[in-house]
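Hi R.,

As promised, here are both runs. First protein below:
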Amino acid sequence: MSMNRRDLLQRLGGIGAAGTAALLATPARSATAGAGNSAALKGPYLDLTTGVGNKTAMARMSGDLDTAKQKQSWFSGVVMAVRLDADIEDLFGFEGLSSSRIQVQTTAPI
């Protein structure tokens, strides 16, 4: 089956219209969620409205909570230049490895 450009654009337009209709049919987010004072910031384990809760959340995302274990990760990306009246340019790529281990500190409160 061959498809010409007109058929392709019509089908893509139909998909876009269906996606827009689905997006408009979803209920809007409440203003409290956007303001950052939602009840979702407080849970049974973490309270993200406090410094201690944020510290625990960051530790859980960046390391293993078992202090005897290390977590290794790999990352890569591209640094780009954005200037007025010019195309976006790739400057250079980078790759790296990281290793982290959590240590319990009892003398440094937040």
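And here is the second one, sequence first, then its structure tokens:
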Amino acid sequence: MKVRRGDSTQVEKLKYDTGFQNNAFNQYASDLISVHRILPITSDEECKRTTQMICPISVVISLPMRPGLYCGEQCLV
């Protein structure tokens, strides 16, 4: 999808500019794209034919310590 600011109405330009100002990306174009769309499969053909076992992974999310944060019965202040 291509959205050109110059081809837009005044209301669309305001939405376009506000989206960039608030979020540093083209929120106006993003809002026009349906969340109920089918995304194409862009995997390499070699990857689609892979039959080997893929190792599981773990994701660790680190959160900053904040005053008053509790874990069980211990305060993590």
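A quick note on the second one: Residues 68 and 77 are 6 Å apart (CA to CA). Let me know what you think.

Best,
J.
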